[in-house]
Structures are given as C-alpha cells and as structure tokens.
Amino acid sequence: MAIATLRDILPQAQAQGCAVGSFNAADYSMAEAILEASAEMQVPVIVSVAEAHFRYLDVPGFVRYLRERAAELPIPVVIHLDHGTSLTVIRSGLELGFSSVMIDGSALPYAENAALTKEVVKAAHTLGASVEAELGHVGGGEGNLTEGTEADPANFTDPKQAAQFVEETRVDALAVSIGTVHGPYRGEPRLELELLAEIRSQTAVPLVLHGGSGLKEHDFRQAIARGITKVNFFTENSLAGVEAVRELLSRGRPVGYPDLIASAKARMKTVVARQIAVFGTENLRGL
Ligand code: 13P
C-alpha cells in the first residue's frame, strides 16, 4: 500500500464517524508496535515523529526505514512530523520524506501563526505532503511526568478564529485546544464538548485532538462524535512499555536486552490495538 497523507484518510474518517490514531514513535520498537498493531487490524495509521524526539534518533535513517515499512504493509501509513517548530525544520523534514507535517505556531500571536502556517502549506503542498497546524494552545509536555498539567481556558480555541485560520492558510487538519494537555493530567481531564461542537459548526476541516493519554473511552467517543478525526497519543504508550520492562526486571532473574525490548514492544502493541478499537478506526478497514 502507498505511503499516505492526512488528506487520504481524515476526510474518510470524518465521513465514517471515527478517528485515526496518531501514535508517536521515538524509536524502532515503538514504530514496530504501532505498525504491527495497525497492520494486524487492517486499519490506516499515522506514525508521528516529534521534533522533540529527534535527539533520540538518526532522523534520515528512521524516515527511510518508515518509508520502506509503510510501502510493504497492506494499509495506508502517514509518516508525520509532529510539532515542527520552524520552517527550516519542516523543509528538511519534507526533504527527508515525511508525507505529512505539523507546524506548531500555537504559542505565537494569531497573525504570526497564520503567516508561518501559510509558508509551510506552500512548501508542503508543492511536494504533495499534508499539513496540520494548531490554533489555541494545548499545554503540558510529555517530559512532565511527575506533576501533570491542567488545561488553561485562556488558551482554548476560538471557533470563529478557527474558521478564519483554515480559510486563510488552507491547512489539511487543525489541532484544537478544548481541555486536553500533553503528558499526564493534574486532576481529571474535562473536555469542552460544546466548544468543540461550535468549532465543528464553523469549519469543515478535519479536527485533531492532542494529548490523548489519560482520557477515558467515553471522552474519545464524545469528541469523535463532535468532529475529532485524528487523536495524538504518546505518554500512555511510553509508560506502558516502561511498566512491562519493570515487571520483567522485578522477577529477580537475569534478563537479556532483547527480551527487555521485546516485552516493551509487545505491551505497547496491545495499547495501540486497544486505542485503535476505541477510536473506531476499524470502520476504515480496506481504505
Ligand atoms: P500525550 O502524550 O498526552 O498522549 O499527547 C501526545 C501528543 O499530543 C503528541 O502530539
């Protein structure tokens, strides 16, 4: 099957009332867990490589490997650069072969975010790649594992601005801020579902939910029912891999490195499969 873009899968997800998981891969075993689970369930998938994780990777080699794997699997695979912070990083990502990019100008004032996003759309669309941008700001951080974060209503997405932003920039998908945060939550997450419905009523662009870890099944279902078509998911997967390793080590017997890695991968694969089922991605079987 071909390497895909967000344009190849998100409109279909929208039509089918489901979402596609955008799972972060920070190394080869995470990537294999994501690809194997998706291929076994015969569903499209978005493998995300965050700019923040570039330091763990030989990025050119990793993208080459993802492209080769995607080409041999019988499912659409989007190879997505997650949270790109500058036009320079986006351009080099596109050159390396990412089929999709996210430009994160969400901390910038509206006009600067829109101007930067327009430049990225020009660069990416020329090469056939898709673009996600963010309006409003999803806080937190995957590194913040001890304290957790609370969503800040001051940074929620404004529905009318969202419509204007999509019109101006021509992005293929828009990440919205409706109560989620990256990494662990402080307290219980509370999604602003009415706000999400209002954003949906103002623009037809596929909407993206960042900060999927820590949400419950009914949160996802309610968000997807109101227009979310792409869910970003990392922290829970990462922690599940670590937990599997901890369990193996706690048995008190010597453990070889290959078994350590295999146990982390197997656990992450079950998490990815569980999330695919929750997102209803099986509605897109055979795409
Ligand atoms: P979590 O790590 O909270 O699941 O968020 C992932 C994400 O949004 C990546 O862009």
Produce the secondary structure layout:
Layout: E1 3-4, H1 6-16, E2 20-24, H2 28-41, E3 45-50, H3 59-72, E4 77-84, H4 87-96, E5 100-103, H5 110-126, E6 130-135, H6 159-169, E7 173-176, H7 193-202, E8 207-209, H8 217-225, E9 228-233, H9 235-249, H10 257-279
Parallel strand pairs: 1-4, 2-3, 2-9, 3-4, 4-5, 5-6, 6-7, 7-8, 8-9
The structure holds 1,3-dihydroxyacetonephosphate.
Task: Explain what this protein looks like in three dimensions.
This protein is of the alpha/beta class and 287 residues long. The chain has one domain: Alpha-Beta Barrel (TIM Barrel), CATH 3.20.20. It is 47% helix and 15% strand. The protein has an eight-stranded parallel β-barrel, surrounded by nine helices. Helix 2 crosses helix 10, helix 6 (159-169) runs parallel beside helix 7 and helix 9 runs antiparallel to helix 10 (257-279). The protein is globular, with a radius of gyration of 18 Å. 1,3-dihydroxyacetonephosphate binds next to strand 4 and strand 9. 1,3-dihydroxyacetonephosphate binds at residues 24, 82-83, 142, 182-183, 210-213, 232-235.
